[in-house]
Every structure is written in structure tokens, then in C-alpha cells.
Prior knowledge:
Layout: E1 2-10, E2 13-15, E3 19-21, E4 24-32, E5 36-41, H1 43-48, E6 56-65, E7 70-76, H2 80-93, H3 110-120, E8 123-129, E9 132-133, E10 139-149, E11 153-163
Amino acid sequence: MSLETHRRVRSPVRLAGVGYREPMWVQRTIRLEPRPRGFHLVTAEVLDALPDLQEISVGILHLLIQHTSASLALSENASPQVRRDFESWFDRAVPEGAPYWTHILEGEDDMPAHIKAALLGPSLTLPLSDGRPALGTWQGIYLCEHRDRGGPRSLVATAWGDPG
């Protein structure tokens, strides 16, 4: 993982009865190392790349994956069987080598990867509370890699909120 960019901006806003407070904006591009096809728990890796979140008492974290053959999801963070079951289901629902695929120039896994990524989506929006995403006990952030060899993946993380 590497951090490619980092922006931090504060702009004053007037809150009723409080005066001026400066909300905090943070934006970073997080580079995730290549992973094999599958559903990978990346919560700790993402949060380690965003130490500024600790300064936000209440806010929003938006994550966008900048690729069309990988996606993000929020799901079970404890059992690896859940991630394997996700992969098994998606491989059956969106098969490789189907005779109806016409976009096959980049390999048999490419068009199914685009469909899987479109079904799951490229982004997550998470509430921040006391410097961390307000996730449930068993929730974690997944990198959903839909290619056999997708390469490094880039996430744009944008956080906005009230400093603590």
C-alpha cells in the first residue's frame, strides 16, 4: 500500500449558537497491492492509511475504487468462509466463457469482472464517529477483486467532518 496524494482543507462555517468552527476535509489516494481474484478484507489497511480520521468526531468517509473490474463492499469481517461464498456465488451468477460475451479482447475474466464490479459498485459511504467508521461489530471493508491478476488498485478516500 502507498499513499499517492494527500489534501487537507479547513473552511469555517457558522453553527447556530456555537460561532465559527472549521470542518475538516481530508482526501488521499490509497494504493492497494495486487491481490488474486477474491474478496479481501482491507479495513485495517484502509484505516492505517487515514490517520487524520482520528481528528474527526462526527463526519462521513467516502471510498471510491478507480477501476472497472474491481469493487468495494461492506460485509462480514470474521469468517473467511463468507468471502469464499461470495466468490463462489458471483462466479456462478456471472460465468466466464459465456457464449454471449462480446468484449473478450482482454481475456475471459474481463467482461465478467466488469459485470461483477457494476453489481457491487465502486464506492462506500460510511459514517464517522469518534475518529473511526461507525461499523457494526462484524462489518468490514472488502476489496472485491474480479480479475485473475488485477494489479494494484487505487482508492480515493475523502473524509469530511467536525474536528473533535
